[in-house]
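Structure tokens
________________
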Amino acid sequence: MSLLPRRAPAAFAPVALLLALGSCVARDASLADEARTRMVGLRADDLRLCAGPADKRESSEAGEFWTYDRSPPGGGVSVPVPMAGGSVNLSGGGMCRATFQIVEGRVTRISISGTNELGVARDAACAPVVQGCLRMIREGTIRTD
């Protein structure tokens, strides 16, 4: 006879859910961080192909600046807390502003700034802006050189 329970007690389910949510947020934040270096050198046409048209475009002596403002849909979760007799509401909603400086038709610098309602891994909200581009770079469909 095994001394281990067949199922985890219900009290552990909220902890497991929080760990899973934290893992997703950390992955998305690392995508945004990776984009800051991997997307430098990308052609402007390729940026438009993989990220879509910019929400705002400005020009200056330093080049063009393409800005993407995104509010990804929130994936809210309500986690019961049996010991407290209530629940904790978690929302993955947030806001992203990603700005790409383009000089001579290529991305030269990237500024990524995100916020989220959880207050952790803030740049995770920018993953939807860059994930398609990073995937295409990894596959070799677009290049940065």
Remarks:
- The longest strand covers residues 106-116.
